[in-house]
User: Fold this.
Amino acid sequence: MLPDNLNSLKIISECPVCRKKQFPADINLVEEREEGHLLHMQCKLCSGSLLVFVNFNDHGANVIGVLTDLQSQEVGKVLSRGPLTADDFLEIYQKMNQEGIVKELLG
Ligand SMILES: [Zn+2]
Assistant:
C-alpha cells in the first residue's frame, strides 16, 4: 500500500515521455526507507517507465525521477541484490543526468 501522501502524487506534473499533463499512471512502491520512498511509475498512455525517489522533509517533498526501461518487478530484482541507499540512487541520478536522461519533473 502506498502512503496517502504518495497517492496524491501531483508533484510530477507531466509524463517526461509523452508530455501528457496529469497523466494516469500505475504506481508501485519498490522500496520504503528512512531516507524516502522509491517508486516505480508507468504512464498508462505511453507505457513510459520512471523510477522516482521521493523524500519528505519539513519543507515538503523532494522528487527525483529517472526514466527507466525496467518494469517494477525487475526493479525489485535489481534491488534484492543488495540494499539501495539514497546515495546509490543519487549516483545513478547523477550519471543519468550527465547523459542528459534526467528530466525535470517538478511542475
Ligand atoms: Zn506518458
